[in-house]
Amino acid sequence: MTFPVLDTAAIKQAATSRLVLDTVRDALIAHAEGRTSVPPPLHMEFPEADGDCHVKAGWITGSTDFTVKIATGFYGNPGLGLPSNHGLVCVVSARTGQVRALLDDRGLLTAWRTAAAGALITDAMARPGAVTLAVFGTGEQARLQTSWLAKLRPVGTVLVHGRNPHRANALCDELDARGLRARPASAQEAAAADMIITTTPATVPVLDAAQVREGAHVTGIGTDMPHKNELPPALFHRAQLIATDDHAQCLDHGDFGHAVRAGAAAQDSDIAAGLLLKAPLDRLDTAITVADLTGVGALDAALASAVLGRLLR
Amino acid sequence: MTFPVLDTAAIKQAATSRLVLDTVRDALIAHAEGRTSVPPPLHMEFPEADGDCHVKAGWITGSTDFTVKIATGFYGNPGLGLPSNHGLVCVVSARTGQVRALLDDRGLLTAWRTAAAGALITDAMARPGAVTLAVFGTGEQARLQTSWLAKLRPVGTVLVHGRNPHRANALCDELDARGLRARPASAQEAAAADMIITTTPATVPVLDAAQVREGAHVTGIGTDMPHKNELPPALFHRAQLIATDDHAQCLDHGDFGHAVRAGAAAQDSDIAAGLLLKAPLDRLDTAITVADLTGVGALDAALASAVLGRLLR
């Protein structure tokens, strides 16, 4: 007898959007309240194969399971007909240390928890009457963030801004097929939307802070390394409310850190994003609000454990 | 399609002692020559369950696979009828980052590579004419180190020294059943053997350096944390050859480090154990030699990869 290995088909069946959203909301609140344990990750490089491996662990303090996530990126793989990213999530009992199961999720759970976190925070921080949504970027997260936000609140026109017009058109078609009204837009037009989500690997800001309207909310999810930067410091300077999913991480390698180093925001001017999910936000209709999300490892633990619980029930 | 999970039955079938010894020898040499990559481990604590989790990765530079080993110790488990230790070894392609297989080895490979390393180094460093073997400790490593050394060279009487006489007797019976001649012994008698292997979790030295005879060899494998200490500094002072499996690790949390901090050995007085496996050692019959082994993570990678290669062949 060994532990079960659950594949993406099983994981997709168990992870309803309700389960993912509820789990990620609770985990963000737990993280904001200091009820999570996330040790420094383990990292390896394989320069000859242009590859790397990150191992991240996380635990919601007191919960039944913790997880160890192994994620590899080998950037020459497409030339071999293989995807660049691989990995798995190992779910371990926090009571006995026994391996409960392995989730061969191919990065699915990480993508979902990222999308759910972005959608939940955007929904909580945007004006109740906000209608238009702009998304910067045309990749998997652009699609997921948009469709998950539409599960949480009515979304009017979706403005898609991408550097590659073919990819922007393809994403619009895909969103249209899901019942959303999407069309390509310039950066200037997108920056004027009620709600803005940036999902790019940009190293220079993708929008002009002066073009963001009063009353708008902006969520950035793409900046996850010190050299990346999606949101301009001037946007943080204009913001009346700044949320970060992890203060130390966002300061170290998020857009918030760029703004603090540029002198556009005070180091203690942010609030833990999870706290904004506990009760409806009291915000001015003219305020600009910003969320900087760099990804919280404890969400992996919460989501994998919840999916496993559903599968083994 | 997901990756295979190989259980202990399959692993035991593939891992012949020849395969393990050859693989560990080559890996120790590679490590001594700087051809390994071992990142700092990831560590988590679960104080309420008296548990911890260590994640260690290793790679023999240039080889096909690397490994990520998840090992948990939950010390209240025996009260629940469960073993304290759990874990698995994940074998990942160092060319594409794809998970090749999981070895649900229940710690078997770690135990074997530890025993093989101890036996190989003891065999390489002991006098050709050394006959009597003393083992301190009565646990799994006491049994394994003894029987693996007996695969490499003739072993005469085995003197077993343990604090618990029942466990010492039980180990002697077990070694007798494997064709060895074993009997319990006092610490003083054991310290006078030709070859000595210490396998305890002791925090104060288990033998008196003055009782060790000229020409003897001593291998310590139990000290793997800064607060542990099996071999007395005075033994290192008497030694004419000191080998460490990993200089930095042994200095940080091995018996060698205790000796250096006590002023009994110079910080650069050790030689990489793996180098002694390349050619027969030129040693004086009257010299005392000492090996301090703290465990090398890259051996896990080499052994798991070799076992997997045999299994998938």
Automatic annotation (TrEMBL), chains A, B:
GO cellular component, one term: cytoplasm
InterPro entries for this protein: NAD(P)-bd_dom_sf, ODC_Mu_crystall, ODC_N
Keywords: Lyase
EC number assigned by the record: 4.3.1.12
Pfam family, one: OCD_Mu_crystall
GO molecular function, one term: ornithine cyclodeaminase activity
Coiled coil: none
PANTHER family: KETIMINE REDUCTASE MU-CRYSTALLIN
UniProt name for this protein: Ornithine cyclodeaminase
Organism: Nonomuraea muscovyensis
